[in-house]
Write a structure and sequence with these properties.
Strand 6 and strand 7 form a beta hairpin. Helix content is about 25%, strand content about 40%. By secondary structure, the protein is α+β, with helices and mostly antiparallel strands.
């Protein structure tokens, strides 16, 4: 596995005006993390910053388009990369928002390391980042911590 985000050129952190990166080591396995992460409809149950998640299928997949509200903005997200138990990424657009959000899941001897990164364009992103410079980082850390907890409860085959 290449341990890097496969950024679309426009969204590469060297180009995009805003870049947020969070990492967490967990005792949960990549399978457990994956099962929890792709159940987007369930995010609001354990990640308070996700609301009104609507997906076409029960789980996210390589062809998923989903709508949801986060940070008070309604987004249309399109899955751009989907490698089970390893990586998922999506683009998302909303009023004043144009982002690319990626996840990496790397197996470790004691579980896995989860990395989530996002780059952003748009007036709403720039304004939010200026007013609350650490808000996105803090909320993504909550997402990672809650994902780790949720994943640890999953039973896989």
């Amino acid at each position: 596995m290449q341990h890097l985000i496969h950024w679309p050129r426009r969204f590469h952190p060297d180009v995009a005006p805003i870049h947020i990166k969070n990492e967490l080591h967990t005792s949960a396995t990549p399978d457990q993390v994956w099962v929890s992460l792709i159940k987007a409809r369930h995010w609001p149950r354990w990640y308070p910053n996700a609301k009104r998640v609507m997906t076409g299928d029960a789980d996210l997949n390589a062809d998923s388009i989903f709508h949801w509200t986060t940070f008070g903005v309604r987004l249309k997200s399109v899955v751009a990369e989907f490698i089970p138990n390893e990586r998922i990424a999506w683009s998302a657009k909303g009023l004043g928002v144009d982002v690319y959000h990626a996840w990496l899941i790397e197996k470790t001897p004691n579980g896995c390391k989860i990395t989530t990164e996002e780059t952003q364009y748009g007036w709403a992103c720039k304004l939010s980042h200026k007013i609350w410079p650490n808000r996105m980082y803090k909320q993504h850390q909550v997402w990672l911590e809650n994902l780790s907890q949720k994943a640890s409860e999953v039973t896989t085959n």
